[in-house]
Design a protein that fits this description.
The structure holds 2 protein chains of 2 kinds. By secondary structure, chain A is an all-alpha fold. Chain A is about 60% helix and about 0% strand. Chain A is extended and about 120 Å long. The two termini of chain A are about 60 Å apart. Chain B has 4 domains: about 120 residues, no CATH class; about 110 residues; about 90 residues, OB fold (Dihydrolipoamide Acetyltransferase, E2P); about 90 residues. Helix content of chain B is about 40%, strand content about 25%. In chain B, the strands form 3 sheets. Chain B has a 5-stranded antiparallel beta sheet. Chain B has a 5-stranded mixed barrel with strand order 10-11-12-14-13. Chain B has a 4-stranded antiparallel beta sheet with strand order 1-2-3-4. In chain B, about 40% of the residues are buried. The chains are: A mainly alpha, B alpha+beta. At the A-B interface, helix 1, helix 2, helix 3, helix 6 and helix 27 of A face helix 2, helix 4, helix 6, helix 10 and helix 13 of B.
């Protein structure tokens, strides 16, 4: 309705001014007529452009009970169950119900630990929504990943691939590079080389990280060149990658430095003489000129060298052919207190980098007899554990908890995959029973209780009920809640079947 | 057992968000013992901090609640938690894990079957009381129907009701006088303001109109009071406030004038003015006066609005046979959920009586002949955005004070734009409002859907949408 437009502005003007200043007979009566006429004459406005519809999601919809559960978990913002729900739904290839996507994306915005699973469960529709809402932009920074159901588009090829690499967002480029490396490492490296000199330093760092996928001897020349990169972080990452390639020039140079620093004494013990200075070639291989920690420079350089030396070097040194015996033999010769800690820490880092289970096993075997406080605070045992097969990891942790209790167990328990096997859950329940009995405060174990909630099998609930029945009120409450969470989790996982 | 309620429906029964949260905590098997459910009711005993568990019963037809806890919230968290547990299927003992969990640790020794179809005594006695009262009410209604009022053969003493009616008429006459005086005062105030000019309005703040509103409350004209109170906020409502303020001044002036000249107006318009001013007709009265419209009523949606004194629940229905739309209102004090609750997207066979006003919309719910069931169609029939604005215009002809009119729009797409949300179809766009427009967008995935809401001069307020997966309360 345009007819009332001119009189309406006159009416508003009269009303603002006041009829004392300007006569306007029956102003409110005329304004009412104009208002009703305008409202009755409303027509739709010209339509704005419509967004592209979301791509179809071919994954199966959640079972009804599971969808209800997700709604409840999101409404409660359940810290203990939501991560596992999302991980399981992701693994089983379910799509989240559309109407829950906003709540899901909001939850993952606040809690970054939920993001990678939430983004996959939210699927293509979630990604489409995120492009329209600035609050959910983080989704676009997470590279799309393959899911169990394979709902992601296949790797682009030919000119489309070029377009992604040349024009795509950073996350799309990382995804593309990672996928290409998985399928054809050489092609991935070749692609990276085409734009390498023009990439920004922080991007170069993450692209280098992506080379871990399918890393092999063919990558060595490129990584060697990266040792002279302008950016310090890029140089350090290149050095670390090279040190995990046992046949690389850097590994050989490190072995040579190790040979100069560590020798076999006449009594069979290791004689250690760390380098007295950090020369240009050491600098180039990623060793810092001065110790970044409070420790002495020589100790620091020694640790860096040992950590980057191929573990096969030590077999040569002690002339032991049986690889499983090497760590034992070497460790038994490194008993002297001088430099012994630096050696062990270097070996531990090397075992982690080179995924050497024999070395990890041997280093861990020493631990309970060693000074535990220091070893555990260094964080090394949990990293060493991660190199071992899951069952062995759980068994080692179970023994640790049986002997040492829960005080220092948190980091170790976190590395053990859920659900915990019988030996580990038994040890943890024994330790909890003892903690409840000795009257320590439940909240001093909140970290362990949290990981126990995620990892104990549902079958443990009955025993926890029994513990709760005889515990003090604070512990009874904590244990009852734990048992309840385990039961709820079992129900929750059954719904996702 | 009847259709199990959805979690959303159960949560919609809660008096406030805090109750929803508290109930969610109780929606786990552990604190519950002696649980059970029948077609009539759900019951259970909830272990709380005290020595005795709270005994909770919910009759599903009302729903009506009974709990031995001392909470002033209604329904209490125990009733809601019990319903949540039931709605999730964990009460009926489906699956071994759940049935094991349905027995509280303390009750494990006396276990027996976790779920009983026969209610324990404490639940049964309350349910039996309800059944008896319902039976008495039905008998009384049948008796009343058999002996119509004014029948000379009636043996009931006629003097009592006659005296009541005379007293009611006198009360009403007194009130009308007060309201008339209130309307006159309001017209004077409006005229004063217009003489002085609206440019002064922002400087006056809320106090002036709050004072006038209080006088309208004293004059027993709550409808005039709330409109007067709203005028105080408009000068601070952003760009274009003079237009909005003049519109609302004019519409309030029109209402007060209509009130003064009510006797000379057609009866339906006079009835509309009375209801706008705040003369409400009792639902029971409306049902008694009839006529009753029996139909399969589809629950189009519901929305709660709350201020610090009152929660108002609006429930919209559409008759499958009559094609009529209806609005039911239910009220609750803070902490008490409005009594009436119907599940969105389901259909019930029931009788309605419409309140006297034009256009006909507000209704009272009479006898329900069935529990809510799933309708045979996937979604209600809808119109275009242009036609939706057309029905608003048609409704304005009867009631010029209407801000919006309930409408189902088909094949429309929600679109976020720089200037806010829009609902778009082939005929154009209207501004779109919803509690969570992102939920609506996620449900649509950028494709057209059917959406129910109120369409008016401010735009479209979405309440419910339908996708291939069914109805979704927004």
């Amino acid at each position: 309705m345009t007819t009332s437009q001119a009189p309406w502005t006159d009416l508003v003007e009269d009303a603002l001014l006041g009829t004392n200043r300007r006569a306007s007979p029956d102003l409110l009566g005329r304004a009412a007529a104009a208002t009703v006429a305008r409202r009755a004459g409303l027509r739709p406005a010209p339509a704005p452009p419509l967004p592209e519809p979301a791509p179809q999601d071919c994954r199966p919809a959640l079972p009804e009970a599971a969808a209800r559960r997700l709604a409840t978990l999101l409404a409660e913002n359940s810290s203990e169950l939501l991560p596992q729900w999302l991980g399981t739904a992701r693994a089983r290839g379910f799509a989240a119900p559309p109407e829950l996507l906003p709540a899901l994306l909001d939850a993952a915005r606040q809690r970054s630990d939920l993001r990678s699973d939430a983004v996959v469960v939210a699927g293509p529709r979630g990604r489409w929504l995120s492009a329209l809402n600035p609050d959910w932009r983080y989704v676009l920074r997470i590279p799309a990943q393959e899911t169990a159901a394979g709902s992601e588009p296949p790797t682009a090829t030919g000119t489309a691939a070029d377009a992604v690499w040349q024009e795509g967002l950073f996350a799309e480029r990382v995804t593309h590079l990672t996928r290409l490396r998985r399928a054809d490492p050489a092609a991935g490296l070749a692609l990276l080389r085409t734009t390498w000199p023009t990439e920004r330093a922080e991007d170069r760092l993450l692209f280098l990280d992506a080379l871990q996928e399918g890393l092999g001897p063919d990558d060595e020349p490129f990584l060697e060149a990266a040792l002279s990169d302008r950016a310090k972080n890029v140089r350090a990452t290149a050095a670390e990658l090279l040190s995990t390639l046992p046949g690389s020039g850097l590994a050989a140079r490190m072995a040579e430095r190790a040979r100069r620093a560590v020798a076999l004494g006449t009594d069979g013990a290791l004689l250690v003489d760390p380098p007295a200075l950090c020369d240009a070639s050491m600098l180039r291989d990623g060793i810092a000129a001065t110790s970044p920690t409070g420790r002495g420079d020589r100790a620091f350089w020694l640790g860096e060298i040992i950590a980057a030396t191929p573990l096969s070097f030590w077999a040569e040194l002690v002339e032991e052919a049986d690889a499983t015996q090497v760590p034992q033999r070497v460790l038994s010769r490194a008993a002297a207190p001088t430099w012994s800690d630096e050696l062990r820490e270097g070996w531990a880092r090397a075992a982690v980098r080179q995924h050497d289970a024999a070395w990890a096993r041997a280093l861990l075997a020493e631990r309970p007899e060693q000074v535990l406080g220091r070893a555990v605070s260094g964080g090394a045992p949990s990293r060493l554990l991660s190199v071992l097969p899951a069952a062995e990891r759980a068994a080692w942790t179970a023994r640790f908890v049986s002997r040492q209790g829960l005080a220092d167990a948190f980091q170790l328990l976190v590395t053990c995959a859920a659900p915990w096997p019988a030996d580990l859950s038994g040890a943890v329940l024994d330790a909890l029973a003892q903690a409840a009995e000795t009257g320590s405060y439940p909240w001093s174990h909140s970290g362990v209780l949290g990981v126990a909630e995620r990892s104990l099998p549902c079958s443990a609930a009955a025993r926890i009920d029994a513990l709760a029945a005889v515990a003090s009120s604070a512990w009874a409450e904590v244990l009852t809640r734990l048992a309840e969470t385990l039961r709820t989790r079992a129900a929750m996982l059954a719904e996702l079947a | 057992m009847n259709d199990r309620w959805t979690t959303d429906h159960v949560l919609s029964l809660a008096p406030d968000a805090a109750s929803q949260k508290a109930a969610a905590k109780l929606s786990r098997p552990t604190p519950w013992a002696q649980t059970g459910a029948s077609a009539e009711a759900v019951w259970g005993a909830c272990k709380g901090s005290g020595s005795r568990p709270y005994q909770t019963v919910v009759a599903l037809d009302g729903p009506a609640y009974h709990c031995s806890c001392p909470s002033r919230k209604f329904p209490c968290k125990h009733a809601l938690g019990l319903l949540l547990l039931w709605s999730s299927g964990a009460l009926a003992g489906e699956g071994a894990a759940q049935s094991a969990g349905a027995v509280a640790p303390g009750a494990a020794a006396v276990a027996g079957p976790a779920v009983a179809a026969v209610a324990p005594d404490w639940a049964e006695s309350w349910l039996a009381g309800r059944r008896e009262r319902a039976g008495r009410a039905a008998a009384a209604a049948a008796a009343a129907a058999a002996a119509p009022d004014g029948d000379g053969g009636s043996s009931a003493p006629a003097a009592g009701p006659a005296r009541d009616e005379a007293a009611a008429a006198a009360r009403r006459a007194r009130r009308e006088t007060r309201v008339a005086a209130g309307a006159e005062e309001l017209l004077t105030r409006l005229a004063d303001q217009i003489r002085g000019g609206l440019a002064e309005a922002p400087a006056r703040g809320y106090a002036f109109w709050d004072g006038v509103a209080a006088r309208m409350v004293d004059a027993q004209a709550p409808g005039l009071a709330s409109r007067a109170r709203d005028l105080g906020a408009l000068p601070a409502s952003g760009a274009q406030w003079p237009t909005r303020l003049l519109e609302e001044y004019a519409m309030l002036h029109l209402l007060a004038t209509g009130c003064r000249r009510r006797e000379t107006l057609p009866a339906p318009l006079a009835a509309t003015i009375l209801s706008r001013v705040g003369f409400t007709v009792d639902n029971a009265e409306v049902l008694r006066a009839g006529p009753l419209v029996r139909d399969q009523w589809l629950v189009l949606g519901s929305r709660d609005t709350a201020d610090d004194r009152l929660t108002t629940r609006r429930l919209w229905l559409r008759g499958a046979g009559s094609g009529r739309d209806a609005l039911l209102l239910s009220f609750g004090r803070p902490g008490i959920a409005p009594e009436l609750s119907l599940p969105t997207g389901l259909e019930l066979d029931a009788e309605l009586a419409f309140h006297p006003a034009v256009p006909v919309l507000r209704a009272a719910l009479g006898t329900r002949h069935s529990a809510p069931t799933r309708p045979s169609f996937a979604r209600p029939r809808g119109v275009s955005i242009d036609d939706a604005l057309g029905s608003y215009a048609a409704a304005l002809a009867g009631d010029p004070w209407l801000d919006s009119w309930p409408t189902v729009i088909a094949d429309a797409t929600p679109v976020p734009t720089e200037g806010g949300w829009q609902l778009v179809d082939a005929t154009g766009a209207v501004p779109l409002f919803a509690p969570s427009p992102w939920r609506l967008l996620a449900a649509s995935a950028g494709r057209p859907l059917t959406v129910f809401g109120e369409c008016g001069h401010r735009g479209f307020h979405a309440v419910t949408c339908w996708t291939d997966a069914g109805p979704l309360a927004l």
